[in-house]
Amino acid sequence: MRTDLAVIGAGPAGLAAALAASARGVRVTLLDAATQPGGQFYRQPGAGLGAARPEALHHGWRTWERLRDGLAASAVRVLTDHHVWCVERTPDGFTVHALLGPEQEEPVEVHARAVLLATGGYEQVLPFPGWTLPGVVSAGGAQAMLKGGLVVPGRRAVVAGTGPLLLPVATGLAAAGVEVAALVESTAPLRLARQAPALAGKLAEGVGHAAGLLRHRVPVLTRHTVVRAHGEDRLTGVTVAALDADGHVRPGTERHLPCDTLAAGHGMLPHTDLAESLGCRLDGLAVDVDTEQRTDVPGVWAAGEATGIGGAALSLAEGHIAGCSATAHLHGTARGPAPAALKARTALRRSAAALDSAYALPAYWSEQLTDDTVVCRCEEVTAGSVREALDLGAGDERTVKLLTRAGMGWCQGRMCSTAVAGLAGCAPTPAKRPFARPVPLGVLARHHPQEGLS
Amino acid sequence: MNPLELAGARPGPAFTVTFDGRPVDALPGQTVAAVLWAAGVTSWRDTRRGGRPRGVFCGIGVCFDCLVILNGRPNQRACLVPARPGDEIGTQEGTGHGRTRTPDGTGDGSTEEARHAD
Fold it and tell me: Which of A266, A290, A323 is the last residue of a domain?
């Protein structure tokens, strides 16, 4: 299959990019792993569920309707159930390698003159004793299961960690009939107040969430943290405690909250695997882009959470700008981006930076890790094993991995990287995963049939 | 209020799948993980080393905690795979390349690989 522009990811950034480029006459193919467009933010209930009011689970529904209707009216070719595992540079452009879902065994190739990466992000969860118990889920995971499957994991939940995502997760679970015993946020309200000028644009959203918490009578514990999840084979409750001004747990403040669900989250991380295998330069953990959302690899653009966590509205603006820039490249010239998008990007990046600094990770989170706490969920590597490796002289994630297998399992370190780096006392580093998802050996064998047969 | 009422859901006809041999109701449009959550099941894997129970964690296909045996094939991500009528869902023990569980817990079922190996 051939196309001019392959957009990878059908969340807010990818949709905005595809619509901008298509409206300017570019032949666009939009690929996404899910069964329907929307990404994580606009994740839709399964079609068979016949949801008449999906908007009850969402924020910014009118924007979604505009995107959805725009896509339906456009010439964009939408390939859902396409799990992209690699983008390869070729003499005349790029080859996008995908596996057809849900089995993910059948390969598909899309050949494109240009590529736009809108791969989004995933949630970061710091470990704590008991976090591997069934009933403990990531906050975004609880939300994804609710939005997509119209299900909840229990009757009484605690929502805990840090970051703006916790608010809609708490109100969403409460609206769906779950008793939310507490919203536990490690950040102090004062830290948010200090960022008020940059967050003015987010005020309405914040007020909306606050009203939701009040309506559902969700108790909010700020400057608190979960120190342990309890249970044998299933979560039965959590111990929460207050944090002092430095971020240490205040002794004597521990209290037990019975619950069967804990939705935990500590911010988001960008999906950068496809960009990395293309050789795109990263800025920290995010794809580095210029003012037109171009990466440093000619013919490759990136937009949305992959270029830095900033939320759906910022992703829409960046996607639009990227789609316009890619069009100009492909056609030689094109109508520029809407001035509103450029203005929005500037303001929203400022508020994203403010949120990022307000919702810093709790400074001494690793003090709660007992030696038997699992850090790497896949390989079941404990904090004690990681500490032994550090005692042996390991000073970074990679050496800890070589000594303990932490980060070597199914998820390839996506769940434990921040924690291992934190224990090692260094900043997380990009992981360099040549394949963005597991690929059957048979697919690779078919991919290069000339090799090994001669 | 429950999530189906909240979203005004009018699902197509329910169908039956099995979990470790026991029948479970499923709705069209739900993933295997959603079907199991709706049935009150939150764990369907025992880890390879510690034999500890796991279920959904990230919910979006990134963490691989929710691996399950589906119709004899191990290592399927329950949060991604849609449920289909007649699906046989089984708790994945360890790598999943061995015996599967039955309703009485005796474990005399087998995975697809094990059957092929016979």
Answer: A266
